[in-house]
Amino acid sequence: MILTVTLNAALDLTYRVPHLVPHASHRVREVTERPGGKGLNVARVLGALGFRTTVTGFVGGEMGRVLRALLAADAAEHIAGGGTATVTDALFQVAGRTRRTVAVVDETTGDTTQFNEPGPHITPEEWDGFLTAYRALLGRGAEAVALCGSLPPGVPVGAYATLVREARTAGIPVLLDTDGEPLRRGLAARPDIVKPNAEELAGITGTAEPLRAARAAQRRGAHAVAASLGADGMLLVTQDGAWSAAVPERLAGNPTGAGDSAVAGLLSGLAEGLPWPDRLTRAVALSAATVRSPVAGEFDEPTYTRMLTSVRVRKAETP
Amino acid sequence: MILTVTLNAALDLTYRVPHLVPHASHRVREVTERPGGKGLNVARVLGALGFRTTVTGFVGGEMGRVLRALLAADAAEHIAGGGTATVTDALFQVAGRTRRTVAVVDETTGDTTQFNEPGPHITPEEWDGFLTAYRALLGRGAEAVALCGSLPPGVPVGAYATLVREARTAGIPVLLDTDGEPLRRGLAARPDIVKPNAEELAGITGTAEPLRAARAAQRRGAHAVAASLGADGMLLVTQDGAWSAAVPERLAGNPTGAGDSAVAGLLSGLAEGLPWPDRLTRAVALSAATVRSPVAGEFDEPTYTRMLTSVRVRKAETP
User: Fold this and answer.
1) What is the mean pLDDT of chain A?
2) Tell me, what's the pLDDT at B318?
């Protein structure tokens, strides 16, 4: 099983409006609700790829109840559709309330305006309780762990460093996808992979040139750095070498969730023991298939299949 | 007791953001949740004025549960603060889910951008069940009824006409505050008071001049028409005469909920048997005190007290 951790899980709402006009009143034409937060998105993609996945992180309040009900409904639908690999809910209940995010989609321009609520306040006792539950999940045969997203208030800024160390002590490969100080601290705990985007990478290394920045992040502790560079694909720096990969064509679409799909690609390749260039191919193909999906955060299967054979991987040279 | 009906009740969320930028991502600094929909706002103001109030309308799903919990918490807080008149929850449970509204407050400009979800679909059986419950509430000593806001999907467009007739049959004065076709139909059932704003009044009468439009609305069936005209105060047309009332000064503030406070003022005056000009004074004073309140939809008590003696009521002349 692959374990994904989403400390700041959310209930994601999408509102479709004919046209967004600031300071006006809008009738929302369509409301979509689904489990949100990076690790939950990663788990959804892994499930669709056929990997058994367990999700954990904090959940609470009425929004938490809605989130868990949606996870259960997704699993039931997956099984009803003939699927076998479902997402198992191992979320940790807290007293605070799971946050919402609201994405307002302007149907005229296609653009999205995003509002993210702050997360629930986590008490020191809840953090300790979560750590115990996390150790137990690691002991239940996790093949890989992904630590994803921002930290809710109250969680120590070194939280990811602690979770990375626990996974490494248990001998389980661990991927970290966060930014800012939690990423900086997490790097020092020597995760197997970090997956920053170009901006996050520049933020912690002070270097805008991706290969130079990726090597700097590697020196700070990551065994491998997989940087997502938007339309320019991905750059991977490992102890065995460096590669870049991109799709052979420009893809129009919605990039929401493309980074999370890249994480799912890397993790699935890691769990299967694929060589690094193949993991990179999978990550880029899934990202591209996510951009092309009509539903934000899902991936288009035909695009994925096609991209698996058309993504170009090249050795990257030191700039 | 005063009964307020909110068929399309909502859970109102207010998001404060530093500055709203379309197509950007925003961290919400502060989230406020409260029971919403016009009739629930009217009840809150009536409760603060010391009137026993019962609320009904449709409620369902997780958001409905949150709404009811907030109503209960408000009542408990009111009692703890030494109050005696609370808002009694007589909402009618349905299978659909109570909608949300999201008001995004731009802290730089002070402006609000509003997103309103559609309401739950109400089945014919639920509508019949509600009618039975409504009749029972009318029989429990209601002194006045307010029918407020839009209709959720599935409810017949003539719903307010039906509810007006039931109240009149029971001998209970009824106020109608809605717009469009539900208002047009409701008027024909001869409510005691309708409270349109200038735009709603023009919409159903085709006349932009307020006094002419109010008289036209009266001819269509309302015994009295109380039109709220924003900063220009209110205009009241009854069978005994016509009056206008306004505050003696321009008030800066947030007009959200000012119309609902006007309804509360009219209803409270009706329940106490005050003469028409005094009901109008109360409505305008409460509206003004709501505009001046730092919290949207609440009223500023000192402003209310001051306005009660400074609102000017004049006989309105036929234009």
Assistant:
1) 93
2) 63
Q: Which residue of B has its CA nearest to A67?
A: B62
Domain ranges across chain B? 2-8+37-97+120-315
* A318 pLDDT tier (thresholds 50, 70, 90): low
Q: Which of A62, A65, A113 sits opposite B23 (nearest CB)?
A: A113
pLDDT tens, residue by residue, B120-154: 999 999 999 999 999 999 999 899 999 999 999 99
Parallel/antiparallel/unpaired status of strands A99-106 and A112-116: antiparallel
Residues in chain B: 319
- Which CATH superfamily includes the segment(s) B2-8+37-97+120-315? Ribokinase (3.40.1190.20)
Annotated catalytic, A74? Answer: no
Alpha-carbon distance of B205 to B228, in angstroms, equals 15
CB atoms A15 and B112 under 8 Å: no
Give pLDDT, residue B233: 93
Q: Which one of A12, A74, A192, A260 is the catalytic residue?
A: A260
For the A2-10+37-98+119-315 domain, the top CATH level (class) is: alpha beta
User: Do the chains contact at A115 and B62, CB–CB below 8 Å?
Assistant: no
Integer CA distances (angstroms), B309 to B54, B250, B284, in order: 29, 16, 11
The predicted structure's pLDDT at residue B319:
53
Q: How far is CA B263 from CA A146, B103, B134, B193, B284, in A?
A: 55, 22, 20, 10, 10
DSSP letter at A238 equals -
